[in-house]
Amino acid sequence: LRIATPRYEAAVVVAENTRVTPTSNQQIGLVFSRSSVPVTDFSQFIFAIRSTVTAEELAEDPQIMRGIYESEWDEESNQWRQPEGRGKDIRDWLRSNGIISSEWRAPDADRLRGYVANNVTIESFDDVGMTQIAFSHPDPVFAKYFITKLIDVSREIVLSRIRADLDQQIAYIESKINEQASIAMQAALIREWNDKTAKRAILQDRNSYPAIIVDERDPGFAPDYPRSTIVILPTILLGVLVGMLIALVRRAYRVSA
Fold first, then answer.
1. Which of 107, 142, 217, 220 has CB atoms 3.0–4.6 Å from 11's, for a disulfide?
2. For residues 40 and 18, what is the distance between their CA atoms, to the nearest angstrom?
3. pLDDT higher than threshold 50 for residue 142
4. Does residue 97 register a pLDDT over 50?
5. pLDDT by residue (tens digit) across 51-74?
6. What is the radius of gyration, based on Cα positions, of the chain?
7. Alpha carbon distances (Å) from 30 to 41, 88, 146, 150, 169
């Protein structure tokens, strides 16, 4: 009896990289704030995981799209198709009766963004300053590939924005240094230029900023879902019901005899 599809979880635990910047200024890019809560480079990285920009980048990877929407990919025609089967009949019936209105469309970045929002869990451990990002899938190899690609793409999107911002700031400072007649002002601008270029150099190590990977958990040999207790309980209940049904049938047979 198939109760649920086994799923294997891959997880990554990350922490904000505060070793490269002062604790009072834990961001290299622009600083934003609202209600005294700063939006740091790390918080932008966490936001990017479920963002449209990240989904658009991931959607360019055929391995990602075909792994997630496997039932909608036709290898023979090498194109997307609406899945067949009882699920399709039910959806068609719901549409014909006005219960749902959405029509099927080929997998794209917008669908992928919704998939990530519903299937990637982000759990913060404020007491230790760490965040776990996890994803589960019936294919353990794909689960690992997807979470790794998701982290890499999200990180690169944030780093690209920071690099562009820093490049603009450095270019502006360079243009102003020679315009200053005051030696003191020139010295201040040079110090600012040195600070920006030093931060720009930090970004060369894309594997440590803005998040450090503290721990990685690869899928195991046994599925993480469903748990054994989840499978055992319905099986026991089903066994009881079947036993009661058999007893009722036997009783009815004896009475009729």
1. 217
2. 11
3. yes
4. yes
5. 999 999 999 999 999 999 998 999
6. 27
7. 8, 48, 29, 24, 10
If we measure between CA atoms, which residue out of 11, 46, 17, 41 comes closest to residue 29? 41
Q: How far is CA 190 from CA 14, 70, 174, in A?
A: 35, 56, 8
Percent of the chain past pLDDT 90, that is, above it, reads 38
Please give the pLDDT value at position 3. 55
Categorize the per-residue pLDDT at 248 as very low, low, confident or very high, splitting at 50, 70 and 90.
Answer: confident
The Cα-based distances of 215 to 42, 232, 256 in angstroms read 17, 32, 67
- Tokens of residue 169, six digits: 């700031």
User: What is the residue-wise DSSP string for the chain?
Assistant: ---S--BEEEEEEEEE--SSS-TT---SS--EEETTEEE-HHHHHHHHTTSHHHHHHHTT-HHHHHHHSGGGEETTTTEE----SHHHHHHHHHHHTTS--PPP----HHHHHHHHHHHEEEEEETTTTEEEEEEEESSHHHHHHHHHHHHHHHHHHHHHHHHHHHHHHHHHHHHHHTT---HHHHHHHHHHHHHHHHHHHHTT-TTTSSEEEEEEE---SS-SBS-HHHHHHHHHHHHHHHHHHHHHHHHHHHHH-
Pairing of strands 37-39, 32-34: antiparallel
Residue 46 · residue 152 · CB < 8 Å: no
Q: For 174-195, what is the mean pLDDT? A: 87
